Amino acid sequence: MKTLAKETTPQGETLFIRFMKVHVINKHGRPLMPTTPRKARLLLKSVTIEVAAFDIQKIKNPKIEGEQYQYGEQYGFDNLREYILHRDGHKCQNPNCKNIKDHPILQVHHLGFWKNPPDRTDRPANLITLCTKCHTAKNHQKKGFLLGWEPKLKSFKGETFMTLVRWRLTEEGRYESTFGYITKGKRRELEMEKSHHNDAFVIAGGTTQTRVVKPLMLEQIRRNKRSLEQFYDAKYRDSRDGEIRSGSELSSGRRTRSIKLNSENLRQYRAHKVSPGRRAIKKKRYPYKQRDLVLFEGKAYEVVGMQNLGTRLSLKPDANSKTKYKTAALSKVKPLKRRGGICEQQA
């Protein structure tokens, strides 16, 4: 989320900016910041960027300078797995781990496997250390603790990145930088509550200036779904209780070549197949995408996705609705607003 707040001063208009990340131009060379006539008339006097809560590199090494800031958090490690194990202290990170071995076998787990689309990237922020008793196929299923698990990792990658950004933006003398602890102290002096626009006001040196009643809150929305293929697992009737479960839930339990590490064989409980597995490949661009706003039955709805090869839409229902999704035929809706890139946040 980005926050822009305009403050009126005797010298003119000033644009106060608080960045959590800096987005200027994407890899295709297209600008990511919106350029409307109203915003183009703002007079930019100065820009101060809060790069981090503190200088994490200087905490690790008070004498750090120059090119030493370019050494990332993996510097000095031969491979990614070695770094992840070192970061996690060579211990299983499951707080409820029942493994009592003195030297358990450790593996690296992808945290984002359950997301849509699945995140199987090898970024350190997506990896964590688990022992073989916790890193099982059963724990990857619906009732397993790994599904939806988002633990807090011991990483300063974000702070290190912002430190590099700070040096790049301030070395030319065009921008100034500050840290979160300075902003917090000034905000307390002015007796202001914690918020993005209050932080922006303090960072810009604000004290008693006349302020905009409503800040402009922006959010970044993905323009296109990067995954072109979606896999839908086969469904089976579970012979134990008659419930319908996916093929991955009723798996054989084999995950390595070591028989000792296999979990329970649940494949034996597959009764008859309810529906076969299939691969859905996106072959064309649909007229609507996620987060677009459409008009249906006289009301505005947010698009969740397309259905039936683009002939129907899945809409986000009202807060009081008991259904998870509301569907509508493509011919029955009218476009209200295309939302992609940097957009104003909806109420």
Number of strands: 19
Tally the helices: 6
Helix/strand structural class: alpha+beta
Which consecutive residue ranges, at least 5 long each, have pLDDT under 50? 1-41
Strand content: 25-35%
Order of helices and strands: EEHEHHEEHEHHEEEEEEEEEEEEE
Radius of gyration: 26 Å
**Biggest pleated sheet:** 5 strands, antiparallel
Helix content: 10-25%
Mean residue pLDDT: 78
Task: Tell me the layout of helices and strands.
Blueprint: E1 2-9, E2 12-18, H1 37-40, E3 48-52, H2 56-60, H3 80-87, E4 106-110, E5 127-131, H4 157-170, E6 176-179, H5 180-189, H6 196-203, E7 210-211, E8 216-221, E9 229-232, E10 235-238, E11 244-246, E12 270-275, E13 278-281, E14 293-296, E15 299-307, E16 312-316, E17 326-329, E18 334-337, E19 341-344
Parallel strand pairs: 3-6
Antiparallel strand pairs: 1-2, 1-7, 1-8, 4-5, 8-19, 9-13, 10-11, 10-12, 14-15, 14-18, 15-16, 16-17
Helix pairs in contact: 5-6
Give an overview in words.
With 347 residues, the protein is of the alpha+beta class. The protein has 6 helices and 19 strands. Strands 1, 2, 7, 8 and 19 form a 5-stranded antiparallel sheet that branches. A 5-stranded antiparallel sheet has the order 17-16-15-14-18, with no helix packed on it. A hairpin with a 2-residue loop joins strand 14 and strand 15. The radius of gyration is 26 Å and the shape is flat. The model is unreliable at 1-41 (pLDDT under 50).
